[in-house]
Structures are given as C-alpha cells and as structure tokens.
C-alpha cells in the first residue's frame, strides 16, 4: 500500500523554524513528484512547494519563497520541508502528496491542482504564535 507519513509539526513562535518530514512507504520516491500542500482553518487547501524527481525542478509558492526549502533524501525515501522565519499566516495542517500519473504537475513555476494528487499523508499541524 502506497502511503506517506508526515511528522515534524508543532507550535512555534513567529520567526522560528520547523522541519517537516514526509516518509514514503510502499513505493520509492525516485523519479517521482512530491508536493507539500497546506490547509488553514476555514480556507481552501493550497500548494506550497514541490520537487520533481525526474528533472530536479523545484517550485515554491510566492508566500513561502525564500523562507521554505524542500529537499529529498533518497536513502531514507523521505522528503523534507524546512520552514524558516515562520509567520502566523503559515499556521495550517501540512500534507505531502504524490500525483496519480507522470504529468508535468511540478515545474519551477507551477504546482498542479490537488485533484491530480491521489496519494496523501495524514497531515501534520503547524501553529505559529505571535
């Protein structure tokens, strides 16, 4: 069974840092696209970042650019999201996901819509206080 398990969320003060982990099981992340989405209370889920294992492309939403860094550890079959200079508006449940096919759902300028992603983790909560 293909699945992701996220971890690393928590409560942090504004300006602080967290590193989220997304461990894959049941499949290898080699040459796969993995994305991070987040959903704040009362808001729609939005794309945050993605990494394309086929061509190395990395995407960041404007709201997190220069603060968040996505990376992958092939040996651990895990993708990370390093989040620095956190802001209260980063408060959300964070999810990692993989698309259902080999479409170009992750480029340097674009992350595909969430309905193209069919493997999701359970989410990890990030809360940033003032």
List the helices and strands and how they pair.
Blueprint (H helix, E strand, L loop, with lengths): L2 E5 L2 E4 L4 E8 L7 E7 L6 E7 L5 E3 L7 E6 L4 E6 L8 E8 L17 E4 L3 E6 L1
Parallel strand pairs: 2-11
Antiparallel strand pairs: 1-3, 3-8, 4-5, 4-9, 5-6, 7-8, 9-10, 9-11
Q: How would you describe this protein?
A:
Helix content is 0%, strand content 49%. It contains no helices and eleven strands. The model has no long low-confidence stretch (mean pLDDT 96).
In brief:
This protein is mostly beta strands. It has no helices and eleven strands.
Gyration radius over CA: 14 Å
Amount of beta strand: over 45%
Structural class: mainly beta
Order of helices and strands: EEEEEEEEEEE
Oligomer type: single chain
The biggest sheet amounts to: 7 strands, mixed
The termini sit apart by: 40 Å
- The helicity comes to under 10%
Q: What's the shape?
A: globular
Q: How many beta-strand segments?
A: 11
Please mark out the parts with pLDDT under 50 across 5 or more consecutive residues, or reply none. none
Overall pLDDT confidence:
96
Tally of helical segments: 0
């Amino acid at each position: 069974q293909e699945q992701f398990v996220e971890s690393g969320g928590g409560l942090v003060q504004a300006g602080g840092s967290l590193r989220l982990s997304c461990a894959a099981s049941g499949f290898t992340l080699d040459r796969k696209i993995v994305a991070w989405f987040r959903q704040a209370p009362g808001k729609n889920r939005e794309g945050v970042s993605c990494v394309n294992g086929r061509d190395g492309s990395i995407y960041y939403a404007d709201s997190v650019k220069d603060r968040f860094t996505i990376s992958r550890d092939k040996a651990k079959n895990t993708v990370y999201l390093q989040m620095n200079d956190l802001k209260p508006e980063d408060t959300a449940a964070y999810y990692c996901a993989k698309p259902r096919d080999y479409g170009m759902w992750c480029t340097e300028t674009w992350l595909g819509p969430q309905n193209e992603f069919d493997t999701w983790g359970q989410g990890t909560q990030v809360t940033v206080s003032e």
